[in-house]
Design a protein that fits this description.
Layout: H1 3-24, E1 31-36, E2 41-46, E3 52-57, E4 60-63, H2 67-78, E5 83-86, E6 101-104, H3 117-133, E7 156-159, H4 160-176, E8 180-183, E9 186-194, E10 197-205, E11 210-215, E12 218-221, H5 228-232, E13 236-237, H6 243-246, E14 262-266, E15 272-274, H7 278-281, E16 298-302, E17 307-308, H8 316-319, E18 335-339, E19 343-347, E20 351-357, E21 362-365, E22 377-379, H9 388-394, H10 397-417, H11 421-424, H12 428-442, H13 459-468
Parallel strand pairs: 3-11, 4-5, 4-12, 5-8, 12-22
Antiparallel strand pairs: 1-2, 6-7, 9-10, 10-11, 13-17, 14-15, 14-16, 18-21, 19-20
């Protein structure tokens, strides 16, 4: 981080933060409120309790230890930059619940041309973990989507214990060399901004009940629920959009928020009172938890991920096989990764198993990670700019890893050339530099082939050709690079 920017952040943190916190309480008393989701407890700090105890600085601050957050941390540290990973729970890789068995569909290209070197390393280490433990991997959901031949045949299935140990093993060297600092049991309560930039974050230590400050050049939201969006006042989606909103054929006639998650109600001391009736749910403000019945003083909504309204929203028509007659989905000239998963539409009450829609191998457009307003925030994971329908394809672990890896490289690039994300959309040459970095340094594909791995001598040429040769993608009739 540059000295000038760091000094500016510290100055703002020491002046603006106090005034922002003071505005939240009655009669000028500063207040910080967060919810400890693990313990289902509301935490309220007031007055002197909100004073900052610790200050953490790094080149980048990553919020959330999801697979996307982990991939972002690995990518950032590989660039020689420093990062702080702030996790709400007591463990990173929070997408894997302790004691469960994790299985998910992967496309048939995942071990060859369908993923980056680092994701292949994650899968390989999972397999090695079972070899070292002399254990047999579970076979639960061996074929998750039997009706779709492209998925599930070689799907990975493992216990969370294996995944957690592998993730720590992959991060261990970065932590020892002090490129990465992992701080757990912290949740962001306030954000200090300057113009369209984040200057610092204030997070509450959920165990010691103290407030700490985090400062970086750029911030990556890898939380499961897009925690930073409402705090920044960014526009986002929750629930299902209507067909009129997105023109998606499988969208409902009217929007609804039935998928917004559960509402938990608390009294002021933080005592859990239970869930309100369904009829009360839609009366609650989905951002601030206000509008609760008179008998309740605070309501917190724990939901599926908020989805950013980014510079590009990915809709069903972009990836569905019904709308893309060639071998690939819609071509994005600013692609920073690839994925291939089916769309899975849940229909509560009528079809418990839901509906599967075939897709074509798709790309991850850079614009889906970038908000319109805040210029040093990158979305990372299931909270990127998708519709409710396409989120089911983009929130799977292999795609989330690709999004996280790209987010880390985008952040490192912006810091290296001292620019912010809004400039990327104005300068295609900068996007080309990011794409080249992903392909050459990370072995991460940004265009789909079925006969080209990251170890191939022609990998770089093949990956970049569609973006430098006009019309190349239009002439593609197969996934082959070699005709």
């Amino acid at each position: 981080m540059s000295r000038l920017f760091r000094s500016l952040c510290l100055l703002l943190a020491g002046t603006v933060c106090i005034s922002l916190l003071s505005d939240c309480g009655k009669k000028g008393v500063p207040v910080l409120r967060v919810i400890d989701a693990d313990k289902k407890k509301l935490i309220v700090l007031t007055g002197d309790e909100t004073k900052l105890h610790n200050f953490y600085t790094a080149d980048f601050v990553i919020l959330g230890g999801s697979l996307g957050g982990i991939a972002a941390a690995l990518a950032i540290c590989s660039s020689g930059r420093t990062a702080i990973l702030v996790e709400e729970t007591d463990r990173i890789a929070g997408c894997f619940t302790v004691g469960d068995t994790s299985a998910y569909a992967e496309n048939r290209f995942i071990e060859t041309s369908g993923s980056s070197k680092s994701y292949k390393e994650f899968r390989r280490k999972i397999q090695e973990w079972y070899d070292k433990q002399s254990k047999t991997p579970p076979e639960l959901f061996k074929n998750l989507y039997p009706q779709l031949q492209e998925f599930g045949a070689g799907g990975i299935c493992f216990e969370s214990e294996a995944a957690l140990e592998v993730v720590y093993d992959m991060l261990e060297d970065r932590i020892k060399r002090e490129y990465l600092t992992v701080i757990k049991r912290h949740k962001v309560a306030k954000i200090v901004t300057y113009q369209n930039h984040i200057a610092s974050l204030v997070a509450v230590d959920l165990d010691s009940l103290t407030a700490n400050q985090f400062i970086g050049w750029m911030y990556i939201d890898a939380t499961r629920t897009g925690d930073l969006f409402p705090l920044l006042g960014l526009e986002y989606e929750i629930g299902r959009e209507s067909r009129a909103d997105t023109n998606e054929p499988h969208a409902p006639d009217t929007p609804d928020s039935l998928f917004a998650g559960d509402v938990y109600c608390f009294s002021d001391p933080g005592r859990f009172l239970g869930k309100p009736k369904e009829s009360q749910r839609l009366k609650f403000d989905l951002v601030k938890g206000t509008g609760a019945p008179d008998t309740l003083n605070q309501c917190i909504i724990l939901r599926d991920s908020r989805r950013l309204r980014g510079r590009k929203k990915i809709v069903e028509q972009d990836i569905s096989a019904d709308f893309n007659k060639g071998p690939r989905a819609q071509f994005f000239n600013n692609s920073i990764g690839i994925g291939y998963e089916p769309i899975h539409i849940m229909n509560p009450g009528s079809d418990p198993e839901g509906q599967l829609i075939m897709t074509k191998p798709f790309q991850i457009p850079l614009g889906a990670l970038l908000p319109e307003k805040c210029t040093n925030l990158i979305a990372c994971g299931g909270n990127i700019s998708t519709t409710w329908i396409t989120s089911t394809a983009y929130s799977t672990p292999p795609v989330e890893w690709a999004v996280g890896e790209a987010a880390g490289i985008v952040a490192a690039y912006c810091a290296g050339v001292k620019t912010f994300t809004d400039e990327l959309t104005k300068n295609p040459q900068q996007v080309s530099h990011i794409q080249r970095w992903l392909v050459t340094k990370r072995g991460a594909p940004i265009y789909w082939y079925d006969d080209m791995t990251s170890d191939d001598k022609d990998f770089v040429e093949a990956q970049l050709k569609p973006f430098v040769e006009p019309g190349y993608n239009d002439s593609s009739t197969t996934l082959h690079y070699r005709k």
